[in-house]
Amino acid sequence: MRLEVFDLRGRRVRTLKREVQDPGFYQLVWDGMSDEGQAVASGVFFVRLQTESSTVSRKILRLK
To answer: Nearest Cα to 39, choosing from 47, 48, 30, 51?
Structure first.
């Protein structure tokens, strides 16, 4: 499973999870930081979840 956050230009901002997970329900919280440890600006982002069988993307709004 891979869970990543992208900006509007399609650049990956943060990788939240990249490991094999057992089936089930999970909750992850993005702290608004980039992979480099910098706080990202308020705005629209996309979260993409990739599994072995599917890929799902959702639009999110980050407000400071």
So the answer is: 30
**62 to 22, 44, 54: CA distances (angstroms):** 29, 6, 25
Contact 46, 56 (CB under 8 A): no
Number of neighbouring beta carbons within 10 Å of residue 14 = 19
Angle CA(38)–CA(56)–CA(26) in degrees, nearest 5? 70
pLDDT number for residue 21: 84
Q: What is the mean pLDDT of residues 6-19?
A: 97
Please give the structure tokens belonging to residue 36.
Answer: 């480099």
Counted domains in the chain? 1
Phi and psi (nearest 5°) for 28? -125, 145
Q: Could you list the residue range(s) of the whole structural domain that residue 12 is in?
A: 2-62
